[in-house]
Structure formats: C-alpha cells, structure tokens
Design a protein that fits this description.
The protein has 448 residues and is an alpha/beta fold. The chain is built from 18 helices and 13 strands. It has a ten-stranded mixed sheet with strand order 1-2-3-4-5-6-7-8-9-10. A three-stranded antiparallel sheet has the order 11-12-13. Helix 11 (198-210) links the parallel strand 3 and strand 4 (216-220). The protein is 30% helix and 15% strand. The structure holds iron/sulfur cluster (SF4). Iron/sulfur cluster binds next to loops.
C-alpha cells in the first residue's frame, strides 16, 4: 500500500479530501526553507508571519468556514486515536501498534487546525514532533520524573501552587486542546478530563484572600481557556475583587494550537478585568500563522499584553536560526519573546530534551546579533520546586577592583571602569561574587 492510499483509508466525518501525497508534498515544498540553511545569519531569509496560510485545504477544504472558525468544532473533532490519525498520516502497521502502546500511557489529542500546519511528508517536521506521539516516550520513559518541579509538594490547597512569596498558580482544569508531547504535566493526562468544582475554586480563592502578600495570580492548566467564557469569567471576576491582587496572568496555548478560541466574547470579557496578561507558547515559526496573528492582535487590542514562553526542543527549535525565525516572527505579531525554557526532566520527554549548553549557545547567537526585544531569557525551572534560574553566556572575562574586562558579541574585549562608591555615601560593597568568572581571575593575572 502506498503512502497516499494508506492516508485515505477509513475516513472519518472530516477525513482528508482526495489529494495525492505528491501533490501535498509539492505544496509543502513551496514553503520549504531555502537550501543550505546554516546556523549563521549569512543565509537568513526573513519570512512573513506564518507560512503562506494554514494548509487547510489539504484535508479540511470541505469543512465550511462557519465550522472551521468555530473553536468548539475543532475541539469536538480533535484527533485522539491512532486510527483517526492514520486518516491523515501514513502509518505502517508496526507504527500503529507502537503508537497505540504509547497512547495507553500518554494519550493523543491534536486539533484539526494544528494538524493543518504539519508537513506530513517530512519525518522531521517540527509541528509533528510536538503533537504526534513517539515510541521514545516509553522506551526512554524511565528517565526523568513524573513531577520534577514538585508541584504536588507546593500545593497548599488542591489546585493552588504557592512557591514564590508574591504569586500563586491556580490550575482550573487538566483539559487541553492538544497534548503537547513535551508537556511538564504529562502526569495529569491519565486522570481523565476534570475541571475544579465550585467548592475547590472557592477554597483556592479563600487562600488568596487570606494571604495579602499575593499580588499576582497565574491561571493555568491544562489550559484554562478550555472553560467556557462565562465560567472563566466567574473565576476571574472573583479574583479581581480581591483588593491585594494586582495582576492576573493566563497561561494558554490556544493562540498556537486553536487560535479561533480568541474570539470577541472572550476578549470583551478579559478587557473588563484589566490588568490581565497572557502568556502563550509558540515554539516554531511555522506556528505563527495569519490565524494566530489575528488572535494575538485581538488580545492586544483588548488591552491584554501577550508574552511567549517557548520550550527548547530537540529537532524543533534547537538552533540559532530556528530561534531567530521564531522570535522575529513573534515580534512581527507584537508578541514579546519572554522565556526560553530548558525542557523539564519529565518522564516521556527525554528524546526532546537538549543539553543545557544548547540553550546558552543559542542566547549567545542571538544577543547583540539582533535587537534585545527578540532575545528571550533562557531559564531552567529547578527540580524539587527550586524555581527558575536564568542562564546566559558569561561576558565578563576578568575583573579587578575598579575595572572589568568585558567581551562583546563580536568577541572584542573592552575595559570598563567600575565606579567606586564614595565613602561618604556609605560602606563600600565588595564586588558581588556573581560578577566575573567563577574562578575569580583578576585582570592582572590575565595580563591585560
Ligand atoms: S497546552 Fe500546555 S498544559 Fe496542555 S499539553 Fe500543551 S504544554 Fe501541556
């Protein structure tokens, strides 16, 4: 059986329309990256936001716009079985068997919209890697931990994590529009879909009311935007009524995997409870589509700033060129690249993790080579709830009292006079041990 006949066998209600694999492939090629791409800036071509458009027509051309533009249609029609996936992606019987094994432990769910972004003929497609299960999730599945950040340990009431003094995380649901293969909360996928009960929500709100140090509430999941807008408003309005809560943040991947969710009703609701910030999760520039751009623009026009928290993933975005395209694409849709996370050491994700040095080298390849707005902060979220630690290249070559030797992005060295604090302004502070090389080399020792 050839690839196209496998792909069109056993169609569902919204199965692919007739198109050969070669047609599909050639369509994809029109948007392929130029040959000879390297990790340098020399061959870098800017691209407009997104590919030319989402490649909806490949499989979903027969779906009316009214359904395609309705996030609930996508949610109802998520592809969540291996047999359903085989309607779109050519799978051998061995691959089907393997994926069924994986999904017993780590289920599958992908929206039609996100599937339409995939280049199905490319085995290394970065969109596929984030959504399609891999046998490596279980063959390497003993590496890592179920809950490396110890979120359970920091849960002071069910669903509320209080780790830092002035902010809390509340988890309203474990339901997501898509199961991202690198998710930190993969452990939650097996517990079926749940949404916090009114009593559980009230207990979380009570905790926030009683702790006046909490000025920042992060609503996360699962994905909180899976809740209906009125239900979400019921929670947000009560958080906003707590005087000491200054800002509310929403963590959601909807702008990336189902941007149709960012509709007028949602935006109007969010604008009533300002200031609300929204953190989303683009990982690759192919995700920055016209639909995603519209969603982010709607949020911004409603007074909701949008920041991006990407995860560094092997074969998806682990190069300077990939990050540059991503970050430039984000800025073009007015989304600030905020964090680049080292992928947490979660069981079932080891095949997607990269050495820490990869992230540091990427930041070094961005800093100075492009505007600072396009450079996210690379962070490791420490195990056992240790919190986030930023990592960056060391630009301090040496130091001695009164002077630093700094290197710039071109590897040129510069002396920098370090101002002394006049005695009359108070006690002189010794240079922090955080400045300079960890081995404490002085300028005189390096001969400069
Ligand atoms: S949307 Fe977020 S919480 Fe849900 S599976 Fe993806 S990464 Fe995990």
């Amino acid at each position: 059986m050839n690839a196209s006949s496998r792909a069109t066998k056993g169609r569902s209600a919204f199965s692919p329309r007739e198109k050969s694999a070669s047609e599909t492939h050639s369509e994809g090629l029109a948007e392929e990256e130029p040959p000879g791409e390297t990790d340098t800036f020399d061959n870098f071509d800017e691209e407009p936001p997104g590919r030319t458009a989402t490649d909806r027509n490949r499989f979903f051309g027969h779906i009316p716009d009214s359904a395609w533009n309705d996030w609930r249609w996508h949610f109802r029609n998520r592809i969540n079985t291996v047999d359903g996936l085989a309607n779109f992606i050519p799978l051998s019987s061995e691959e089907r068997a393997q994926l069924k094994l994986v999904t017993l432990k780590y289920p599958l769910a992908v929206t039609p919209y996100y599937l339409s972004l995939m280049n199905l003929s490319d085995p290394d497609d970065p969109i596929k890697k984030q959504a399609i299960p891999s046998i490596l999730e279980i063959t390497m599945g003993m590496v890592g931990q179920e809950d490396p950040l110890d979120e359970k340990g920091d849960s002071v009431v069910p669903g509320l994590v209080h780790r830092y003094p002035d902010r809390v995380l509340i988890v309203l649901t474990n339901i997501c529009p898509m199961f991202c293969r690198h998710c930190t909360r993969k452990r939650e996928w097996r517990s079926g879909g749940w949404v916090r009960t009114p009593a559980e929500v009230e207990a979380m709100l009570d905790y926030i009311r009683q702790h006046k140090s909490i000025r920042d509430v992060i609503i996360s999941g699962g994905d909180p935007l899976t809740l209906s807008t009125p239900r979400l408003e019921g929670v947000i309005s009560r958080i906003r009524a707590i005087k000491h809560v200054e800002i509310i943040r929403i963590g959601t991947r909807f702008p990336v995997v189902l941007p149709q969710r960012i509709d007028d009703e949602l935006c109007a609701m969010l604008s009533r409870y300002s200031p609300i910030w929204l953190n989303t999760h683009f990982n690759h520039h192919h995700e920055i589509t016209p639909e995603a751009a519209v969603a982010c623009d709607r949020l911004l026009r409603s007074g909701v700033p949008v920041n991006n928290q990407s995860v560094l993933l092997r074969g998806v975005n682990d190069s300077v060129a990939a990050q540059l395209r991503l970050c430039h694409g984000l800025l073009r849709i007015k989304v600030r690249p905020y964090y680049l996370f080292q992928c947490d050491e979660v069981q079932g994700t080891e095949h997607l993790r990269t050495p820490v040095e990869t992230g540091v080298n990427i930041i070094e390849g961005l800093r100075g080579h492009t505007s600072g707005l396009a450079v996210p902060t690379f962070v490791i979220d420490l195990p056992q709830g240790g919190g986030k630690v930023p990592l960056q290249p060391n630009y301090v070559v040496a130091r001695k009292r009164g002077e630093l030797l700094l290197r710039n992005y071109e590897e040129r060295l510069f002396r920098y006079r370090n101002p002394k604090v006049p005695a009359e302004l108070g006690p002189v502070t010794e240079p922090s041990s955080g400045v300079g090389n960890s081995d404490g080399r002085l300028l005189v020792e390096t001969g400069v």
